[in-house]
Write a structure and sequence with these properties.
The protein is mostly beta strands and 283 residues long. It has two domains: 98 residues, no CATH class; 135 residues, no CATH class. The protein is 10% helix and 55% strand. It is built from two helices and 25 strands. The chain has a 13-stranded mixed beta sheet, with no helix packed on it. The chain has a twelve-stranded mixed beta sheet with strand order 1-4-7-3-9-11-13-15-17-19-25-21, with helices on one face. A hairpin with a 7-residue loop joins strand 22 and strand 23. The longest helix has 17 residues. The radius of gyration is 24 Å and the shape is elongated. The N terminus is likely disordered.
């Protein structure tokens, strides 16, 4: 009987905790800047979106939410405190968003950051849970997410993107691209410079509009590469299982169904591809 009473009390306690409704909040800030902007943004949960917009202005819109499963008794009070004192810092053209002086304020609270910046902006973004999106900025861009996808479009300078669990999609970047994901695929479209892509579990699809070095490796999944039109490459391709498909090429040394090495269209930048489990196709 004593055990039954204990369980019943525990059930009432759980029910009372889960009865708290979701709590929402937000804050907005607008800052004036001149010239190149150096933006740092971070959030433990919620995601970050950065978009190139009006010159001379950085606009921040943050959405706060608690209550996906559990809401603590003081969640609303903490959200209101964040609204009163938003984690936004500016030192000239250096802007930091999401860096909390007291990290306990965000326990159990997601903070989604939507930021509009001048096109002449470089970005360093870090997310615990949620995606990162950035588009129409000069760069360079460095972004990292533990759980969530990365989408980077229309950047002039180099891009360095990593995701522990989530896919990466990068398009129309004129600088060098580096992409790493532990679980998820990688797609790089219309790259204007070198590509270095590695996935532990997931396929890789790459395309270039200007020839430059390409390195791609995946442990589980295939690799497809669309080379720059009419450009030559020095090709090295390896597969553990699967097949290798390439354009007509001049073979260098020996070759087998698991390894091909040679020159496409007279040779050029190095194109090195490896798929431990999956096929490789080079067009």
């Amino acid at each position: 009987m004593k055990q039954i009473l204990t369980l019943a009390v525990g059930a009432v306690s759980v029910a009372s905790l889960s009865a708290y409704p979701r709590v929402f909040g937000q804050f907005d800030r607008t800052m004036s800047v001149t010239g190149q902007v150096d933006l740092e943004a971070i959030t433990t949960s919620g995601g970050i979106v950065v978009t190139g917009g009006t010159a001379g202005t950085v606009r921040v819109h943050a959405i706060l939410e608690a209550g996906n499963e559990w809401v603590s008794r003081d969640a609303e009070a903490r959200i209101r405190e964040i609204e009163r004192n938003p984690p936004v810092e500016q030192n000239g053209n250096h802007v930091r968003i999401g860096y909390m002086t007291d990290s306990r304020l965000l326990e159990g609270i997601s903070m989604r950051l939507e930021i509009e910046v001048p096109r002449t902006t470089s970005l360093h973004a870090k997310v615990g849970s949620g995606g990162v999106r950035a588009s129409n900025i000069l760069g360079p861009v460095a972004c990292q997410t533990h759980s969530g996808s990365v989408q980077i479009h229309d950047v002039e300078a180099e891009v360095n993107a990593s995701a522990n669990s989530g896919g990466i999609h990068i398009a129309r970047v004129n600088g060098a691209v580096t992409a790493r994901t532990h679980s998820g695929g990688i797609e790089v479209e219309s790259a204007g410079s070198s590509i270095d892509a590695a996935a532990s579990s997931g396929g890789i699809r790459l395309s270039q509009v200007r020839s430059a070095s390409i390195h791609a490796q995946t442990s589980s999944g295939g690799v497809t590469v669309q080379t720059a039109a009419g450009a030559g490459y020095d090709v090295t391709a390896d597969v553990g299982s699967g097949r290798i498909t390439t354009p007509e090429m001049t073979i260098r040394g020996g070759f087998s169904r698991h390894h091909v090495e040679g020159k496409v269209r007279g040779g050029g930048p190095l194109l090195a591809v490896r798929a431990s489990s999956g096929s490789v196709r080079i067009d």
